[in-house]
Write a structure and sequence with these properties.
Belongs to the aspartyl/asparaginyl beta-hydroxylase family. The protein is α+β, with helices and mostly antiparallel strands. 32% of the residues lie in helices and 16% in strands. The longest helix has 24 residues.
Length: 371
Amino acid sequence: MLPRCEPFRMEASADYVQFVEELLRALLTVRHASVEVAPEFKRLKYKLALADALFDLCRHSVSASLDALALFSAVEEELGKRMCNAKIVLLLNQLDREADAEDYATPCGLSAKRLHLQNPDIPTQPWWTLKDPRLPGWIRQLGQSAVAKRIRSDLWRCVAKEPGAFDDSANDWYFVGSRHRWTGLNLMHSARGGWQRWCSSCARETCERLRWRMDLNYTLWDELRGAIRGANYPPPMYVNFYALAPGAHIIPHLGNDLRLTVHLALSVPARNQSRIRVADKTVNYTRTGQLLVFDDAYDHEVWNDAESIRYVLGMTIWHPELLKSVARGHRLLPPVPQHNFALCWRGKTGFKTDLLAVCRGRVLCNRTKGA
């Protein structure tokens, strides 16, 4: 019998459907482990699959976290050795068992306080200063007062015109424990066809400012993958308006390697009531225009202790060490989204023409200058 996973607050029928889908995924994982492996390993694989399912779906619950930890420990006992599983370190830290986390991590060559999954061939650090010469200059420009205000205007326009678009919350059950607590409006996503339709409606200026940046161009993967050993899969790349609900806590988790994360604060609670911890350093969100750059391959978590929503523009960029392999001045056209809406790509200085219209799929392209 599966241990109970509580609390789950079903606020709408759509929430219930998604919960059932995720639970079925977890159950199918367990079933696969019990059916597809050799008989002598069935019990071990079953326990490991169940521990993973509890970790993924129920870790916001203390009782489920304890159950997951017990299952991981049982697997290690049967193996007769330590798996050096980063999930165990996360669970121990989440349960305030920091000494146990350190005892587990140290023999594995891990750091319980600076746990990360960054590729070993890339120089790594949890926090990046804006003065770091490896960061592109356009990131610093986002923090300029006038620029931040224009991006915030796009945010408010999207909140007013498209409130239902803040539904990019596939992970909020995993990390928050309830739907609609950590949501986002997705402006660009590498797995969803690139730049999204909001770029032609409520977020035109934000998208226009960002869409040509090489650091955001996920189509560079085929060119970048050979630069780093073991880089077999691209990390998800995205640009989002993120909303974190009052009282929400995103529990500790690990992101993806080969990229950095940038947060531009757009509307943050007063009196430093919202904060983010990456590795062993916590930083408060303090003002509109504040810029934070961090490596989300490190263990990190976020709090909003206020009674108002925290909004940020969040985006991922290629890790600067990866982009060293790309020839200076090289640019690839950003992909056109697979949506049916009018969109015109305007050329920049250095292109052979001053106007580029790229058509693909059902996208309608307008070649009229200024459209």
